[in-house]
Each structure stands twice: as structure tokens, then as C-alpha cells.
Write a structure and sequence with these properties.
The structure is a homodimer. Chain A has helices at about 15-25, 85-90, 100-110, 210-220, 325-340, 350-365, 370-390, 395-410, 445-450, and strands at about 5-10, 35, 120-125, 125-135, 140-145, 150-155, 160, 185, 200-205, 225-230, 245, 250-255, 255-260, 265, 270, 300, 305, 315. The first copy, chain A, is α/β, with parallel strands linked by helices. The first copy, chain A, has two domains: about 5-170 and about 275-400, FAD/NAD(P)-binding domain (3-Layer(bba) Sandwich); about 180-270, FAD/NAD(P)-binding domain (3-Layer(bba) Sandwich), CATH 3.50.50.60. In chain A, strands 3-2-1-7-18 form a five-stranded parallel sheet, covered by helices on one side. In chain A, β9 (about 200-205), α4 and β10 form a beta-alpha-beta unit. The longest helix of chain A is centred in the C-terminal third of the chain and has 19 residues, at about 370-390. At the A-B interface, β8 of A face β8 of B.
């Protein structure tokens, strides 16, 4: 008699929803029972905009860190679903860099496009408090709390998929004197509206995507000046007047910031664009991935199956640093669902085989030298996983677009969003924007759909 | 053979430290083993200032909500320890309304004044994740995580004292249109420096202590204007020019705020001074106090012993609305420690007797009609508890001071901190401030100690 499978998915963002979609489409004879727990009141994960910062309406750490004026910072053609293209959704060609509103709409289209209403699998405003693996019975005890009702439940599952994401718990480094800084200090996770910073002198700490985009956003919406400060290396884009880069902040003295090159500047606001922490406080220690952001975490088979504990029945989705985002989540989710259902040829492998496979990826990861290396690494990783489950998302063609996008940004960081890419699935070339990102202040989906040549 | 008692204290703020002090002073033959878990890196609870907002350096909800320029909003003579007076600590008379720096110093003096180093009982940067009562063995399983090391522990205790406070998890109501407000939105918990609001038009939502003090702070430090909006009733103080009160905010449209009286105003910042939520997410449901702020929570004997579950071995400290603060915590902690050690004459009582006693207080609570009623209620409550443990903190004399303080605020909200009170324990009359609060911009302890007539 085969075991009754019961799968717990934690999180209803792009990763968790991808898993729900795939389980929903599976044949009924292999399909397990599925329960998805979602802390927020709706699905969408990071793609839900919220006016709240810090803690949410229930006092839980706020999940979302989107800002009103966010536009995709990569071409939509690099995160397009092979089996649900942008053209399928919008029924017309749209430019390559949509605002958040349009992207969330696309995601939601995907999730409501199947035969089932996936909401029936999701327990909203329900936070998972504890996941413990029971060695003897080879299952998991999951404790969750319905935040609205204040009522907790304990349930048992054969498998757990952790899909809470890795970009929701801010990393906040200390700088000497910061506690006496006489201005606003915030993390980019709490950034909501660039207009708040009109006329102000900003210090942006960090040199990755958040730093880059927030510096530009704030200048666009009227900030007086922006200094970005870097630890490892500068972004070195051709910044518009008003943005400059300096080596790492050393200390603060009231409103004066002192940098490693001996320079100093008076600033009004500090925005920590210092990234996120891997945080899975609800998992028992041996189940908990404790990593820094990396292209392939240690101790994982296919960057998905956790080898540290949990009897090969605990999975993580989307825990690598990401270029491919939605399509990578999709591939991982499909692999994970099929692995659980036992429908992948050649799986399961022995632990030794899984570790050998993981070692191969980790060893290649250790030799990565540039963002372009990272892109190719991730394309190969997805291709490897895709081949096992027949998803075929044309990752090398997407990788080529990502390489071009990287070059476009070097050429002109202010207008890289004016570029157009061609869908590898529909073959449609994106129309050009009529008014460029820098000149557009209405970031709604409707305004975007009208803003084409 | 008597049971080996093992007590878990959760939180090393004024409440938890009061319990630690009392256990430390107890006779060795009745003294239980004690472990105190503290999420922060040091003791002090809400009295630790932090530059962080929202989530802390480990991604946990930030405990502290102090602002740089906070001064006590009540006379220090109303929160003075009978057995460790302000004069014992500072060795000289000091004015009645000290800044946070001086008050924290006083607390720390109390905690380091005994024979033992109380730090040895405290596990710092360790958060309690789960407390479950085991009916069969009549004890508690407590799971905690050392946030620095990322390592969890499970321990068993005979008693648990919840001392995490009730003013650390913000309550954030929604207002129509708030998600489109084009300015900064924050809760008072995230308020750090009034200088951030210089030249700005503030909307302060709320009509209690935070609203009152933040409105004044911001105006003092240069805010352009402050509108306070109330739900139940206005504060009705004689506000300085620049502060006004309006009935409840109805909706927001971009930067326009619309009020219940039909008026509207353009504002730059919304500060939610909307209080806090009772939040004990680590407690299993039947142990969890789920209440609104009240002078005496339901289901508690002596507002301290939880009657809802936990076999009469679960205690809360400081969970009522507070006028007496430190001295009330002290009285409750002493009662609680002695109750656990079995050294209170006439205790333990039967559950029926405890419920009858609780009903008496709840019934009186239900008839309270004014802040002055609340003050007298709390004085009587503390006197009742004190009489059982012989603490004698002269609560009626303190209540009289609180009545006067209430009147002082009505007379002049800007300068009530210029008043002087006399210690009921040392008999010392506080010296007057040389420069009044409104004119002082250096809020350090040192500046305060020099600022006397």
C-alpha cells in the first residue's frame, strides 16, 4: 500500500504558487493532498504592495518591500512563462520593462488560468510557527496560527516545501555613530515612495540592484543629491548629475558621513540597500538553511532538496541569487512536485549520488568570477533541471538576453528600460516605450499599456 | 520530597529584571533555578534606545520604540523604588521629569545594586519561539533560539513568567486611501528623532500619550504644523500655536486628509500613534492573553497569574494599562516570585477563590469612568498586592501626585515638566529645572543633571 502523501507549501508567492499550479495540473492518481500557508491576506508574495513597513497589521514582520514606482529592472522576456506568455495574458505586445502593477497582473493571470481555483488550497493570514521533522514516523509536524482568529493548528505532513523567499528579511549592518545620526535611517525594504525624499540629500549604502534603482528613483522624483557607498566595488554606471559613488562609509557624526577615501558629506537620510538575510525562523535547526546569498547554496540537491535533515522530504524553492526569477521558480517547482509525486525518471537517487551532484554545482559556483558567469551558470542549472522534467524554457536564449541587458545598463543606466527584447516563446518583439521611464510618473498598468510607440 | 522548581522568565526589561532581583534576594532554601531569555543584546527592554526600526539586526520585530529626545512624561516620584530611591542612585536631588538616558541609568543602578551579577541568569540575543504546557507532567516545554549562533534549545520549566511587555508590537489601523498617500507613513514605534520632521506638515493619528508627546516634540524641533486626529475624544489640551485637533481621519487622497467634521488638510507625514497590540506569538493558544489595553485583563488572578491554562504556573507581569509602571511591576514581580516560592501567607488559593477575587477587580474595572478613577483603581490594586507581600510602596500618596500631574497637564501641556514633586520615600523635594523642557535640546543625562536651579 502506497503512503498517503500530504504536502505543506509555505508561502503563496511566485514560488509557492508555481508549486500549487503544478500539483493542480498533475494526474489525480499521483496528486498529493496539498495545504499552502500564507502569512499575507492575498497571494503574490513580494509582488503585493503594502503601505505598511516594519511590522504588518498583525505585528508580524512585514513581508513586502515593493515601492510604488517600481518597474521591472530586467526584461520581461527573461521571466516569461513558456506556457503562459505575456501575449497570452495581455493579448497585445507590451514593452520589455513593465511596472509592478503589470507584472503582478501577469502573475495573477497565470495563477487563475487553470481549471481549479487555487485559492481553495491556501490558508491566508496564517503564519507557520514551527516545522519539526519526526525521524521515527518520517513526517513533519507543522504548527501554524490563523492571525485573524488568533487560533493555532498542528498538522502532520509527509513533505514540506519552503517557499517564503529570501528577499523579505532585511540585513542591517551597523556603522559607527549611526545611533546618533540626526536624520532618517531606513532599509530599502521600507522604501515606499520616492517623493518622500524630494529636496533631500541621500546616502545610499550598497552597490547592488536596490542601491542602483533607489538612487535613480529618488533623483527622478526630486532628491537633491545621492551618494552611493560601496564595500567591495562600485557599480560604476554613467550616473546622471546628482548621483555619485564613494568607497565605504566609515562613520557618522551627527549628519556628517565619513568615507574610506577620507572624504565626507552632510546627508539627511540614510537608506540601507544592504540586502536581505536568509531567515526561516519557523524551521528546526537541522532543517534550516543558513546561508549568505549565493548562486547555489551548500547542502542541497538541485538547489531544492535539503540534504541537511528532514529525510529527503524537505524542499526549498528560489533560494539562490536570481537572474531568471519566475522561470527558475517554475522549473524548480515542477521538479519538486514531480519528485514528490515520484514521476521523475531516475529519481530518487541515493544520498551519495545527490551529494556528488551537489558538489559538482558548488565546485563550479566557487569558480564564478563575474555576473556574466553567474548568468550562464544559472542557465545551465535550469537547463539541467528542465531536462529532467521536460520543461524546456530555452534558458540559453534567455541568458543571451541577460548578457545584452547587462551591457545596456553599462551603456546608459538611466535609459536601459527603453530597450526592446523579443520573446523566445511567442516570437513577438516588444514595442518601444513612447515616453521613457525617466519621464513617466504614472506607473500604473493602464498608463504603461498606453505608453507605446 | 519537594518538587525542584525551575523558572523561565521571558524578557529582561523592567518587569523581568524585577523578578530576577527578587529571586536573587530570596533565601537559598526556597530559591528556584532561574533562566531569563532576552531577545535584545542587553537588558533594559523598552528603555534601550535603538537606531533600528521595523526589524532588528536578526530580522526579528524590533522591540524598542524610544526616541532620542524622550523625557519621562510622568513625575519620577511616581515610579520610584521604595528601597532604591533616586537619591540613592544619583546621590543628589534631581528634577522630577528626567530624560530617557537618566531613567535607564536609574534602572540599571537598581539592577546592579545587589550582591549578585544578574547577567549570569540571562541568555541575551535569545528569542523564545514556543512555550507549551504539558498537562501530564505539569510543566512547560520552552523552545528558544540563540539568534547570534542560529542554534535552538529546548528546556523544561516548572513555571513561566511572561515579561515581554505590552508596548512593543504596533497596532496599525487602516484608513481608506492610505496605500496611495504620497508621503511618509509610520507608527510612533518607529519614531526616533523629531528633527527628521523639520518644516513638515504632520498628521498624528491618536489621542493618547504618544500622540501628545510626539506632537509637542515635533513642533519643538521645527515641524511646520501638526494635526492630531481623534476617534473617541480629543485630548483638549491648551496646545501651542502649530498644533490642533480634529475628529477622526476618514480618508486620504494623495496628500489630502479628510476628517469627520468635513474639513481637510494637506499633510506630508502620517504618524500613527495608535498604540500597541497584545502579542505573545510564542505562547500556545490556551496560554496566550488576547486582550485590548485594560486596567485589569480578564482571566487573571492578581492581574498576574493566568487562569486560562498552564496549571496555575504561568504568570504575566505588567500587562495592565499603566500609571504606576516600575513600582507596579516591582510589586507584581515580588508577589509572583513569592507565590512561586510558596512564601505568601494564605496562598495558593483554590481556583474558585482566585476567580472570585478576579471578578471583583474586573467588575470594579468595568465601572471606571475617568483617568482619575483609573489611577485610584491601580493604587488600590497595588496596595492589595503589596499588603500580601509587605512591600508598602505608599501607593495612595503616589496616586495623589498622579492626580496633580493630570491637573498640571490641563493647565499647561507645554510646561508640565517644569513642576516639582516630593519623594514619598526620601522626603526630598525635586529641584526645579533651570531651563524648561521646551527650551532644552540636549537630552543627555549629563546635561539634565546640570540643568537645575
Amino acid at each position: 500500500m502506497s503512503e498517503r502523501k500530504r504536502v505543506c507549501i509555505i508561502g503563496a508567492g511566485p514560488c509557492g504558487m508555481a508549486a500549487l499550479c503544478h500539483f493542480s495540473q498533475a494526474a489525480s492518481d499521483v496528486r498529493p493532498e496539498v495545504v499552502c500557508y500564507e502569512k499575507q491576506a492575498t497571494w503574490g508574495g513580494l509582488w503585493n504592495f503594502t503601505w505598511l513597513t516594519g511590522t504588518d497589521e498583525f505585528g508580524e514582520p512585514c513581508h513586502g518591500g515593493q515601492y510604488k514606482h517600481l518597474w521591472s529592472n530586467g526584461p520581461k522576456e527573461c521571466l516569461e512563462f513558456p506556457d503562459y506568455t505575456f501575449n497570452d495574458h495581455f493579448q497585445c505586445p507590451i514593452p520589455s520593462f513593465p511596472p509592478r502593477d503589470a507584472l503582478r497582473d501577469y502573475l495573477e493571470g497565470r495563477w487563475t488560468n487553470g481549471d481549479e481555483d487555487l485559492r481553495k488550497y491556501i490558508k491566508f493570514t496564517t503564519v507557520v510557527r514551527s516545522v519539526v521533522y519526526n525521524d521515527a514516523s518520517q513526517n513533519f509536524t507543522v504548527v501554524s496560527t490563523d492571525l485573524q482568529a488568533g487560533v493555532s493548528s498542528t498538522e502532520v505532513f509527509s513533505h514540506v516545501i519552503v517557499a517564503v523567499g529570501i528577499f523579505n528579511v532585511p540585513n542591517k549592518p551597523y556603522f559607527d555613530g549611526i545611533e546618533k545620526f540626526e536624520g532618517r535611517i531606513m532599509h530599502s525594504h521600507d522604501f515606499r515612495d520616492a517623493k518622500e525624499f524630494k529636496g533631500q540629500r541621500l546616502l545610499v549604502v550598497g552597490a547592488s540592484y536596490s542601491a542602483e534603482d533607489l538612487a535613480l528613483q529618488c533623483l527622478k522624483f526630486g532628491a537633491k543629491s545621492v551618494i552611493c557607498t560601496w564595500r567591495t566595488k562600485p557599480m560604476s554606471f554613467k550616473w546622471p548629475i546628482g548621483i555619485e559613488e564613494r568607497p565605504l562609509l566609515q562613520q557618522l557624526d551627527n549628519n556628517m558621513a565619513y568615507f574610506k577615501d577620507g572624504s565626507s558629506a552632510e546627508v539627511d537620510v540614510i537608506i540601507l540597500c544592504t540586502g536581505y538575510r536568509y531567515a526561516f525562523p519557523f524551521l528546526e535547526d537541522r532543517l534550516r538553511l543558513q546561508s549568505r546569498l549565493t548562486m547555489y547554496p551548500d547542502n542541497m540537491y538541485k538547489a531544492t532538496l535539503w540534504l541537511g535533515g528532514g529525510g529527503g522530504r524537505l524542499f526549498y524553492l528560489g533560494v539562490e541569487d536570481q537572474y531568471f526569477t519566475f522561470t527558475m521558480f517554475e522549473t524548480e517547482a515542477l521538479w519538486c512536485c514531480r519528485y514528490i509525486m515520484g514521476t521523475i525518471s531516475g529519481e530518487p537517487k541515493s544520498e551519495a549520488e545527490m551529494r556528488a551532484d551537489a558538489d559538482k554545482w558548488v565546485s563550479r559556483r566557487n569558480g564564478l568570477k563575474s555576473p556574466n558567469d553567474d548568468i550562464d551558470f544559472q542557465a545551465d542549472f535550469i537547463a539541467d533541471m528542465s531536462s529532467a522534467v521536460g520543461y524546456n524554457p530555452e534558458e540559453q536564449k534567455v541568458a543571451d538576453m541577460l548578457h545584452k541587458w547587462k551591457r545596456d545598463k553599462v551603456v546608459d543606466i538611466v535609459s536601459y528600460r527603453a530597450q526592446s527584447f523579443r520573446s523566445v516563446f511567442s516570437g513577438i518583439e516588444a514595442p518601444l516605450l513612447k515616453h521613457r521611464w525617466w519621464k513617466v510618473f504614472d506607473d500604473s498598468k493602464d498608463a504603461f499599456l498606453k505608453n507605446t510607440e
